[in-house]
Amino acid sequence: MADHGPSWFRQYVILERAALRAQLQYRVNFWTTLIGGVAFQGTQLLFLGVLLSKFGMIAGWGFPEVAFVFSMRLASHALYVVPFGSLMMTDFIVREGDFDRYLLRPVSPFLQLVTREFRLMALGDGLLGSVR
Fold first, then answer.
1. 130: which residues sit within 8 A by CB, 6+ positions away?
2. Would the pLDDT of 102 be above 70?
3. Number of H helices, E strands in the chain
4. Helix or strand or coil: residue 61?
5. Where are the domains of the chain?
6. Cβ of 33: how many Cβ atoms within 10 Å?
7. Are 119 and 23 in contact (CB under 8 A)?
């Protein structure tokens, strides 16, 4: 069987690293976005803590149970959005004509679409979701 270049997974890793390196060009923006993702979701978790401290349990659920469900939602959201978050922009990319460029390159158009940008806010979600 002939080798037709790097595997799709290797191509994905190469393109995703390039997207991450592009984000890392602006270090302050990288860190503020990452911290902003954690802070945004952290304020929601703080709100749940304040709410449950005021009312005690809601339908038999205390703060530890609610925080566990909240962290599971954050982690699962990050597991989808970090690798596949760019799919949410498909309609915009097609409408603007950017998808035509993907068709001319020797890499899978789907792979280029998925690795178009690295979602830092979702990475912050994953960090907060994995802490619990």
1. 71, 75
2. yes
3. 7, 0
4. strand
5. 8-131
6. 16
7. no
The token pair at 97 is: 């004509």
Task: Give the tokens for residue 98.
Answer: 């950017």
Q: Please tell me whether residue 74 adopts helix, strand or coil conformation.
A: helix
Distances (CA, A) of 64 to 52, 58, 128: 10, 12, 15
pTM of the model: 0.71
Directed axis angle between helix 27-55 and helix 8-24, to 10°? 90
CB distance 93 to 113 below 8 Å = yes
Which residues 6+ apart lie within 8 Å of 124 measured at CB? Answer: 33, 34, 35, 36, 37, 38, 39, 40, 41
Q: What is the pLDDT of residue 1?
A: 47
